Amino acid sequence: MTSILLTGPAVESLTLGEAKTFLRVEHDDDDQLVTALIAGARTHVEAQAQIGLITQSWRIVLDCWPKYGRVAVRPGQLQPLVAARFSDFSGNAHVIDTQGFVPDRDASALSFVPWAVPVPGRAAAGIELDVTVGFGDTAGAVPESLRQAVRLLVSHWYEHRGLVGPASAMLPATVSALIAPHRMSSL
Q1: Engineered SS bond to 6: which of 33, 54, 57, 184, CB 3.0-4.6 Å?
Q2: CB neighbours of 166 closer than 8 A, spacing ≥ 6?
Q3: What is the three-state SS of 118-140?
């Protein structure tokens, strides 16, 4: 299974103003840096937890259907299934009715009846599922513990931006602890 980002989040899980307040930065000289650190921290938290924080679109590519009729969607926080397609032997894409899939938002998985879906003709990447993931469209929809993990990463990277070595590579243990309850495990 391959996950491909189609459309990233429209906003970040932390505003520039919130980050600057947390960092106690009162000047505008580092605004570009702090903005980049926010995006990097969000991406890091999403990768560690295997979930999307803010609403975003992904394409899940499969070689074949799982025989038990369940596709784990990673990154998680599954919202609706937007589109489903399979490719025939000639490589032509055909639409599959999304009503045949039941989203399990808690497990971030799609269930389906295995014998009711068409078998792809291509041996590799013959199935594409377009999904929306994330807690919501605004920073306020993201759990506060994950927003705090983003804050702590921004702060850590801001304070250690000039260092190379163990001090800059080590992340605060609290970041992992804040992410752990939200981490999606692989099936």
Answers
A1: 57
A2: none
A3: CCCCCCCCCEEEEEEECCECCHH
State the Cα–Cα distance between residues 151 and 119, nearest whole angstrom. Answer: 46
C-beta separation of 13 from 139 below 8 A? yes
Name the strands in the sheet holding 56-62, side by side, starting at the edge strand that comes first in the sequence.
2-7, 56-62, 127-133, 78-87, 93-96
Is the domain of 69 the same as that of 23?
A: no
Identify the pLDDT of residue 37. 95
Indicate if 81 and 31 belong to the same structural domain. Answer: no
How far apart are the C-alpha atoms of 45 and 179, rounded to whole Å?
A: 7
Compute the distance between CA of residue 93 and CA of residue 65 in angstroms, rounded to an integer. 16
pTM given for the model: 0.86
Residue 48 is assigned to a structural domain of this protein: yes
Question: 6-46 pLDDT, tens per residue?
Answer: 999 999 999 999 999 999 999 999 999 999 999 999 999 99
User: Could you give the number of structural domains in the chain?
Assistant: 2
